[in-house]
Amino acid sequence: MTQPTPKKPLRIGLIGAGFMGRAHANAYRRAPNFFDLPYEPVLKAICARSEGTAAAFARQWGFESAETDWRRMIERDDIDVIDICTPNDSHRDIAIAAAEAGKMVLCEKPLARTAAEGAEMVAAVEKAGVANMVWYNYRRVPAVTLAKQLIDSGRLGRIYHYRAQFLQDWTISSELPQGGAGLWRLDAAAAGSGVTGDLLAHCIDTALWLNGSVKKVTAMTETFVKERMHQITGKVEPVKIDDACAFLARFENGSLGTFESTRYARGHKALYTFEINGEKASIKWDLHDLHRLGYFDHGDDSLTRGWRSVHVTDHDMPYMDKWWVPGLQIGYEHSFVHQFADFLIGLGSGESAAPTFRDAQETQEVCEAVLASGADGQWHDVEGL
Amino acid sequence: MTQPTPKKPLRIGLIGAGFMGRAHANAYRRAPNFFDLPYEPVLKAICARSEGTAAAFARQWGFESAETDWRRMIERDDIDVIDICTPNDSHRDIAIAAAEAGKMVLCEKPLARTAAEGAEMVAAVEKAGVANMVWYNYRRVPAVTLAKQLIDSGRLGRIYHYRAQFLQDWTISSELPQGGAGLWRLDAAAAGSGVTGDLLAHCIDTALWLNGSVKKVTAMTETFVKERMHQITGKVEPVKIDDACAFLARFENGSLGTFESTRYARGHKALYTFEINGEKASIKWDLHDLHRLGYFDHGDDSLTRGWRSVHVTDHDMPYMDKWWVPGLQIGYEHSFVHQFADFLIGLGSGESAAPTFRDAQETQEVCEAVLASGADGQWHDVEGL
Amino acid sequence: MTQPTPKKPLRIGLIGAGFMGRAHANAYRRAPNFFDLPYEPVLKAICARSEGTAAAFARQWGFESAETDWRRMIERDDIDVIDICTPNDSHRDIAIAAAEAGKMVLCEKPLARTAAEGAEMVAAVEKAGVANMVWYNYRRVPAVTLAKQLIDSGRLGRIYHYRAQFLQDWTISSELPQGGAGLWRLDAAAAGSGVTGDLLAHCIDTALWLNGSVKKVTAMTETFVKERMHQITGKVEPVKIDDACAFLARFENGSLGTFESTRYARGHKALYTFEINGEKASIKWDLHDLHRLGYFDHGDDSLTRGWRSVHVTDHDMPYMDKWWVPGLQIGYEHSFVHQFADFLIGLGSGESAAPTFRDAQETQEVCEAVLASGADGQWHDVEGL
Amino acid sequence: MTQPTPKKPLRIGLIGAGFMGRAHANAYRRAPNFFDLPYEPVLKAICARSEGTAAAFARQWGFESAETDWRRMIERDDIDVIDICTPNDSHRDIAIAAAEAGKMVLCEKPLARTAAEGAEMVAAVEKAGVANMVWYNYRRVPAVTLAKQLIDSGRLGRIYHYRAQFLQDWTISSELPQGGAGLWRLDAAAAGSGVTGDLLAHCIDTALWLNGSVKKVTAMTETFVKERMHQITGKVEPVKIDDACAFLARFENGSLGTFESTRYARGHKALYTFEINGEKASIKWDLHDLHRLGYFDHGDDSLTRGWRSVHVTDHDMPYMDKWWVPGLQIGYEHSFVHQFADFLIGLGSGESAAPTFRDAQETQEVCEAVLASGADGQWHDVEGL
């Protein structure tokens, strides 16, 4: 049989072997099966602090080698792209080192713990001129991409309202410790913030993408459990993250935003929802049924007008021609596959896939304003880049 | 203030003071508040077997008098219309006597225990030339009336499928007795049949109205609890009704029907549902959220096509201009108010409101074929009238 | 037949013949049919500015007489209770005059345009010692009353979050005029405020009832359509109401509140929703399916834990033993019937039905703080009574 | 790093490169990433009639070689297992040849066109003593597996009703041709039957698994579009498949079954639903939201009893510990991954994963009875194996 020209390899070094490391590794592996891509991902190396973890992950996912020191991995010249899946406190150092070494840099969200860190990272990748992207994966859930298409096509008309929530309930127990493996998200030193950087960052990224820039915000934050045992120090220590955060926003386009996130909403595991109300139509979506998009079109005749539940599985839906047949849904992990495929397609065409570090820095700036407002109760303008 | 011409009184004699008696009395009382009607209902007399019941009901609902013998009530010349809300075994006798006395006759569904009884009743009211109607109330739930309008306007195109269910769970306990007050529906002598006459009769009436005549059926019936204490005899007696019944049907229009009813569907109280699939559009409805209509229009553009949940409360919806404002739902009892209003409007215009006894007899014929098939396992043609 | 002791009459004078007038009149008429009450409502007089309107309303609802001047109606000594269903700008004057005349006073919500007006009204009824109540009807939707019972029984445990919305879309068109019949809600002089007094007042009343007092708030308000033709002056005039308002709140019990209301949420007619997240369980409800309550119980075994959709129709549910049978839903108007029945029952027992004017004044104080914050962007404490 | 003992390779030869070929290939590739398995799948060869198709599929999915003649592939001694994803008319010949060659045999559903063919296949694999399995994948959707666990644990008690539907709408257009690539499902010669073998077979497999054997059935079948252009012959030819089929059933356990399938239900793409009503609890599920299970427990206290929507994503749910975190859903394709993982685990432990050919033959027997009843209108007993 005739062989087509082999594809260019893209040699990946993944840092971090946790939940997100798995999601990214799966994306590298799945994308070539379902997409026609200009690059062939090569799983060159996985880096984890523990040798055993790294080795096991390498076997499970087919990485060629395992490392335990990320600085060493960045030094390797057989790696083209560094993908950062570590806790937030190491994003800046790894990203800057990788950029300085001329590697492309992918970074799990949020970009950084603070806007200041993020700004350094943006500067580093832009100075190095390396491809870069942040894994705000929800943009590539087909129903969310469809929402973007509907908005861009003008179907909604002038936008009046944007509202989003990200509700979880996994930290209600005061027995849950903070810090260390699996729980660094409760440790402000590691995470930077609580739900703001972890969950609202997702809501904000989507909002900026779908509805444009945020001008100013006022916020309310709360830490319900004031002290938790710290897994690393072994001591009961104050909890310094925000357990819950809600904020009001004014967008550049004149619409009003309401955002809320918490890890104390009993009954919700990962209920990311958004709704957009326009003059002519409205859209809503939620992560617990991510394959559906709610759509209301005021242009429908009045006798049959109602919220439509669009089952986003037909082949003309974003990304869905790559998967199965109408009616058969995909899941969470596919958003990473789509983002990675888009990254490779972007590399091939020279147009980088969004969100870049610069795009993601805008989310950092909103988070910064939100946390500042949570602290002083004032409205805060969102700083420009 | 100038008084408009007073309306013609319509003097009502209601027989039966149970659940249905209340629903009808409420309809007489509310219709004039919400509709502009050519007649003024006058609650002349209530008849119940027990004097105390009749008196209490009269006070509660404002009837002018109370009777304990329906034959005596029919003899009264100050009554224009007899409304029958008794168990099924007395429908025939009362209806025929009332017709012969020249009264208009309203009858709670099912028309009769058997098609033979029903035929006598049709003959009686038609011979007497009196107005008559059967209370298949679900036709007048606004969402159901809307379904009829959408079908009649051709929106669905050729119909392929009609399916209906009526699921309840109230007779699962074998401790529940049969017969007597509140439980005559479990006694074949009083009810004629079980779920077929009680619940499937509703499904069939709606189906005939929305989708036309049924040609033939094949059915499966079951009695899960074989014996129950009989409240009247005080003895454990065989249960002779159908606890559950499902049937397949072929409609005259070439579509296929599937119907099912049971009182053993744990978790459902009064879950009457129907769905109609046409070439161009589909419709679905259920009684547990009766103010909504599901509608799918294949003509919608493919990116936003989906089942619509129409909240049937706007003023251009059937009957809804009479009630509140958009977004505010009405309930079960309103279907009776609508039907009674339509009856009075029909009287005024000389066009009788459906379903008449003759219309309802078609449902009896389908029930008869269903029960016959349940007994012998064969397909049965539905007899003409 | 033996007549029981006749009930005491309660002679009602209703002021206002609009949408709310009908809802109240219906409540007077329906309550005695479905509830066993210590008083017999007598529909003594309806007052509307137009003689024709008053006369027609009297005929439709069976009032004995019609008035066109509310002061004259208050002077009548054959009236026990004055029920105020006029636009907000006349609530104070009518209520105070009625109280001074020794009448019981019922008032449609919001109590007043401002907290200052409300305070005068509270003082007047308390000084006169007359029974008084404000028609925050949603407390008596059975599912909402059930929510109250569940919370009071301790099922939710410590409360973390309370969120509510009231979303409508009826004023999006800039062609819609303001002021005058049917549109006084858009006229700040008549209404006092926009969505805050009209819609958020409902959300706040329920929240105070279910979750206790609010300590402080920060708000964002917006008027999307800046000018509208005024129906009374005939001129294009500035719109001075809030078209949309969102606010963040801190409750006395330590929980966080988020509230939002708008008349620019395309696709929603009267979507009042609330959700409460407690340590052990959560509850949610919405007005578009008012007969259902969402309930999540963390105590359920993990394999079958999930949000329950409780169909609030069984006879052990609040108020539902008065209506039909399990599975058959009631609607919007029934909340008024329940509130009126509770008022009469309260009169009989000497315990006044909530919310009284004093209760409703707490909602006024929250609204006042919200509007102040919307104006200056600061957090505002809610003033005590 | 220390290498663990390498896993035993399992060398796979896949026949068929269509939709199902992709679903199976994906299962081989993903299972080792997410499960700890005793065998390492080796994608040895793909067989497709067209050389180009086979080569492209091999590249896309990483098969080592490509074949165009399935007989040749079976002859290869470097292949352990033959997986059949061809149209139904070749299942028998391939399976028997593979079994006779001593290969393990996996077969896409339905097992065969007819019960007679199926019986030969069962005999062949059992005579050869080779591992065998049929890809009734829906058993391994976590929510469906959970349903099985709940039933087996006795939570439902005595079962009264089982109902299932599989509704599609893709063949409504009479312009759609029959036969050949992508459309062999409309050609009775290739498919054996229409919706009965294609869709009801799924419903029946699940039903037999969850609810035990079916004793007898009565069915109604219909072919709405009588003639279609045949893609292979190029002529308009009669359509000989069943476009729609509904049947009533009696199970061995005394419960009643209703089943329906069609490709003419406008608005439904792949709406496989089932509901089971037991004395103590009920369960429902549908493929359009496959990550949820509906559950109603009559044992819940009456004030909060309602249908629960269980979001089947927590780590204690079947298979879900292998995937992401609570709240994040998986999709259709995962059911194949699970089944393949179970097959390998079964091989390792010597216990073969269900459904085997013998298990799947019971579904063939039900289909046979259904089609016979569709033809003659009589109740048919289901033949034993």
From TrEMBL, chains A, B, C, D:
Q: Which Gene3D superfamilies match?
A: Dihydrodipicolinate Reductase, domain 2 (3.30.360.10), NAD(P)-binding Rossmann-like Domain (3.40.50.720)
Instruction: Quote any Pfam family the record assigns.
Output: GFO_IDH_MocA
* Domain Gfo/Idh/MocA-like oxidoreductase N-terminal span(s) in chain numbering: 10-134
Q: Which keywords appear in this protein's UniProt record, sorted alphabetically?
A: Oxidoreductase
Entry EC no(s): 1.1.1.361
Q: What SUPFAM superfamilies does this protein's entry cite?
A: Glyceraldehyde-3-phosphate dehydrogenase-like, C-terminal domain, NAD(P)-binding Rossmann-fold domains
Q: Which GO terms describe its molecular function?
A: glucose-6-phosphate 3-dehydrogenase activity; nucleotide binding
EC main group: oxidoreductase
GFO/IDH/MocA-like oxidoreductase domain location is 146-283
Which PANTHER family does this entry report, sorted A to Z?
BCDNA.GH03377
Q: What is this protein called?
A: Glucose-6-phosphate 3-dehydrogenase
